[in-house]
Fold this sequence. Notes:
Layout: H1 2-7, H2 10-25, H3 32-57, H4 66-83, H5 87-111, H6 117-135, E1 146-147, H7 165-188, H8 190-200, H9 202-207, H10 212-238, E2 240-241, H11 243-246, H12 249-262, H13 269-291, H14 298-313, H15 318-326
Antiparallel strand pairs: 1-2
Helix pairs in contact: 3-7, 3-10, 3-12, 3-13, 4-5, 4-10, 5-10, 7-8, 7-10, 8-10, 12-13, 12-14
Amino acid sequence: MRALWGAMTPRGKALLAILVVALLLAPLAVNRYLLSVLTLILYFVYVGQAWNLMMGYAGQLSLGHALYVGLGGYVSAALWVHFGIGPWLGVFPAVAVGAAFGAAIGWLGFRFGIEGVYFALLTIAFAEFTRIGFDHISFTGGAGGLFIPYEEKRLGEWWNLRGGQPFFYYVAFLMAAAGVVIAALLSRARIGFQWLAVREDEIAARALGINTFRAKMKAVLVSSGMTAVGGVFYAFYNNSLFPAQVFDIGRSIELILAPIVGGLGTIFGPVIGAFILTPLGEILITAIDRIGINAPGVKAVFYGLLLMIIISVVPNGVWPWIVQRFALVKRQP
């Protein structure tokens, strides 16, 4: 992290400091609606960082990443509803279950040479199988959903993730900050360089003595475990979980768009992407509601068009263009 800070120019450091201070003070200056939008932005920053570690750094495409959000959410919510185990303890089994599913997918894919688009299809298949399974599990509410009781007497119990909008905003802020720090540390660590080698040329990486199977498995485990933590937040923030919603491929696409738009394999790409896409999506939904048009798929179409425009203009993502345009990072000698 110190190396990342040292690589930034004074302008970059100043802009980052301003952003952090502005986010810390946001609850004092914006209304509840804008605060909820900012909370969503920070949530997508975090889960985008988790996916970016697997795809942006290790080069393993997962299009079913909502699987881990759903698993983390359902495990923590079920432990709370049925056994009274709070989310701060429930997050550990949630991460374990998410990582176990990630390990199963990774082992099947990497051990049998399922790569590229076929590996992506494998991740989608696991998410869909899990959705069908949860539709028929009465313990978690089945297709009717699992609901976390909202009790006013529990407001303020931070240890149970019970609080108002400002409370969840700061939790999302801490998660987003942690995601950035984790990505920065891993990208500069030995495993980060191994991931980059695997992403660029797996055969060459293997020739250099890198255990590519182990490196890719570590990427899947870290990414799935981190995403499961996001699922815990998702469950207690929304107080309800539905299999058709949380495991849906549309949720996975929504999750991965921020790092793609911001810049794959960059630390601040998911941050920029989330700050671009989430507000635009909310503006679109608000505009459609005011007009009174019933168009359930318009958000996906909008995201698709926006993605095509951004890729055509800045193929490497918005963040690399910003860095080059405004000199936020020192030039390498």
